[in-house]
Amino acid sequence: MQFSSKYEYTLLALLELTSAYPKGEFLHIRQIAAVQNIPSRYLEQILATLRNGGLIKSTRGSKGGYILTRKPSQITLLDAFNCIEGGSGIANFADTSNQTTKDRKIIESFYLEAYQAVNAVLNKYTLQDLYEQRENQNQSEPMYYI
């Protein structure tokens, strides 16, 4: 199972917005792009999609930027996935020939089970969960002083 780089960049951007959310800070594209090493042009497209999907909002001006529209604990990874991938979920196993065979039905049943499992996992975790895991990892890394 592999997710698209677009979805990975989406989660990285949302993780940055999550870290700024408690302070009510709006983040600029260049800030997010620099911290997460995401190409700015690509990030613009991702943020526009997230804004149109209602997960973030933007404001113009020197103090403007992007911010989450809901608490990070209320935005699931499935919400982000559906927003950025067009709500299609994982690519469908489709029979384009309109011939449903017994073998195809067997494969479709396995696909459906996998699809439901992936959706269940993505729906289980929120942006807050990702943020807390990042913070725990940062705290457990040893500090070296010279």
What share of the residues does DSSP label as strand, in percent?
Answer: 5-15%
Q: What is the C-alpha radius of gyration, as a whole number of Å?
A: 19 Å
N→C terminal distance: 43 Å
Question: What sort of overall outline do the alpha carbons produce when their principal axes are compared?
Answer: globular
Instruction: Work out the helix count.
Output: 6
Q: Give the strand line-up of the largest sheet.
A: 1-2
What is the total tally of β strands? 2
Low-pLDDT stretches are none
Identify the CATH homologous superfamily of the domain at 5-88 and 126-136: Winged helix-like DNA-binding domain superfamily/Winged helix DNA-binding domain
SSE string: HHHEEHHH
Mean pLDDT: 88
CATH architecture of the domain at 5-88 and 126-136: Orthogonal Bundle
Structural class: mainly alpha
Give a quick account of the main beta sheet: strands, pairing sense, barrel closure.
Answer: 2 strands, antiparallel
Reading off the top of the CATH hierarchy, the class of the domain at 5-88 and 126-136 is best stated as Mainly Alpha
Looking at the structure, the CATH topology of the domain at 5-88 and 126-136 is Arc Repressor Mutant, subunit A
Helix share, percent: 55-70%
Question: Any overview of this molecule?
Answer:
This protein has 146 residues and is mainly alpha-helical. The chain has a domain at 5-88 and 126-136: Arc Repressor Mutant, subunit A, CATH 1.10.10.10. 56% of the residues lie in helices and 5% in strands. It has six helices and two strands; from the N terminus they run H-H-H-E-E-H-H-H. Strand 1 (56-59) and strand 2 form a beta hairpin. It starts with a helix and ends in a 6-residue tail after the last helix. The mean pLDDT is 88.
